[in-house]
Amino acid sequence: xxxxxAGTSIATVSLVVNGKDRGRVSAPIATRVRDAVEELGxxxxxxxxxxxxxxxxxxxxxxxxxxxxxxxxxxxxxxxTVGDRFQLVLSVTERGAQPVAADVRRFERLRPAGxxxxxxxxxxxxxxxxxxxxxxxxxxxxxxxxxxxxxxHDLVRHLHEQGHRRVGYLDGTSxxxxxxxxxxxxxxxxxxxxxxxxxxTARADLTVDAAASATEHVIEAWQEDGVTAVVAAADTLAYxxxxxxxxxxxxxxxxxxxxxxxxxxxxxxxAPALTSVALPGADLGRxxxxxxxxxxxxxxxxxxxxxxxxxxxxxxxx
Amino acid sequence: xxxxxAGTSIATVSLVVNGKDRGRVSAPIATRVRDAVEELGxxxxxxxxxxxxxxxxxxxxxxxxxxxxxxxxxxxxxxxTVGDRFQLVLSVTERGAQPVAADVRRFERLRPAGxxxxxxxxxxxxxxxxxxxxxxxxxxxxxxxxxxxxxxHDLVRHLHEQGHRRVGYLDGTSxxxxxxxxxxxxxxxxxxxxxxxxxxTARADLTVDAAASATEHVIEAWQEDGVTAVVAAADTLAYxxxxxxxxxxxxxxxxxxxxxxxxxxxxxxxAPALTSVALPGADLGRxxxxxxxxxxxxxxxxxxxxxxxxxxxxxxxx
DNA sequence: CTGAAAGCGCTTACAG
DNA sequence: CTGAAAGCGCTTACAG
Lengths: 318, 318
Hints:
CATH superfamily of the largest domain in chain A: Response regulator
Radius of gyration of chain A: 25 Å
Mean pLDDT of chain A: 89
Number of helices of chain A: 11
Largest interface: A-B, 41 and 41 residues
Keywords (chains A, B): DNA-binding, Transcription, Transcription regulation
Shape of chain A: elongated
Number of domains of chain A: 3
Oligomer: homodimer
Distance between the termini of chain A: 68 Å
Protein name (chains A, B): LacI family DNA-binding transcriptional regulator
Number of strands of chain A: 12
Low-confidence stretches of chain A: none
Strand order of the largest sheet of chain A: 2-1-3-4-5-11
Order of helices and strands of chain A: HHHHEHEHEEEHEHEHEHEEHEE
GO molecular function, one term (chains A, B): DNA binding
Largest sheet of chain A: 6 strands, parallel
Pfam family, one (chains A, B): Peripla_BP_3
Strand content of chain A: 15-25%
CATH topology of the largest domain in chain A: Rossmann fold
């Protein structure tokens, strides 16, 4: 239709709308085509275009839980980076489960330009016929990760300075590898610093409610065990600890110091404000998108490891 | 490849993988095809399939702000309803802006089976070549909406019973129509009940921080104006009011009652627990998805209006 | 019950 | 600089 109206061929229209007309199509014809496109409100068919070209302009981001403010940040970083060149679409897994290989498979069918997978389940081989970049998947070679070491070491040193010698750890139930790494690094750093990690263990789903109820179950045991500080694997979990402490009248940080991971925006406004190992979500999204773009442009992506640092706030007496 | 391995034709394979083989393909051949599909890990190409068929199996949900727990609920409802029949993909607008017609246009290219638009900007004509269902867009005919009346009237009656005669209203800055409706209904109901709505107005983006800082600006004026209760257009906003009241030592509900809209999961656990007009997000998502499915099946969808009700909690002295 | 063939709307060598 | 033609991987009447 457009070709007919512009008095030219379909091939020429294709060149013009794809911006490949430089030096291939004369200016007057290109203008006629653009006018026709405008008047007809023509928009290239995505399916046909993807089919002919072999892949489309979609970038898929698969994440476990979009309602988590952390992922909102990641999404922002990805979007800012892929910009107008690609169309970003999101997919959430069922009930916050970690993305698995089958999720990638399902989106491969869409022939996206690339797939980003945030916090994939451990041990899943995320290979596809399109480029895949993993976010926050320690161990994967195709991944963009945080370097948790500096943040964790700062945290442990800070706790030590504040006089804590026995701490509790509230872990997540998530299958994401990053939680294993957080815990391991933390325990190693504690051992090195002469801080004992209580044998009383607790874990919860990544919600305030779940964390609160897990905390209720172990808080007495922690107290009896001489724990003076609790570190949670995520800020959301730490909020649960804060809530229970508040309800039980346990002074924070006086009787119990609390810290988390993520440094969510709301962590500066909890009561008391939460000390946290900052994992800049937008940076992660940006780095992952850059890596994907590099791959698509045929450039060997450099492996990215994003710095982390400790944000000291009132919950640990800072 | 699959056809070759199964010793049959491409057409037959197509019938089998699309489950259209009943009475058209013999059992042994169908089995051979399925085996071949299994062994080769074959998955139908979405682009080619969409192109040949005219439309695909994608359902697109465009929403302004996925990090809002309310939308997380909506998404859950949609997903539960579209199930395996369609592939749900999400799109977030830039910086939480209300979805506009251009967003719909952009996703039309994907040839989805249908498009769901949550909280679209007011006055946008959301027409497309594929079925579009609007969520929470009062006034639109293709929309699934809440019937806010019962909830708002219960709220006003409740405030009246608690002795409030002068209230403040904290509005959202969102362009979504629903906020206008909330305010209007509330003011009408107040007028009818003999409650004055303070002229001191405040509005904020839908975040706790923004609401808190907006509240800080007007709280004194409200107090001077004799306001004894504040109603916020969303629970997220009400959290900001609660925070400021807490910081200033204003007793809730003793000196100031607070209520919101949405009844987010976290509203039962704020301090104090928040009275709220419940807008069941999952129900909205479910109703919208059902409406889309009905349209796709050629059934005239019945217009849906979802009931709302008041959840009374401690923040208004309940 | 099965398969050859047209066609979905594009893109891209290729020939002119 | 321009256009005719092949082909992307499917689906679906249609003929057998």
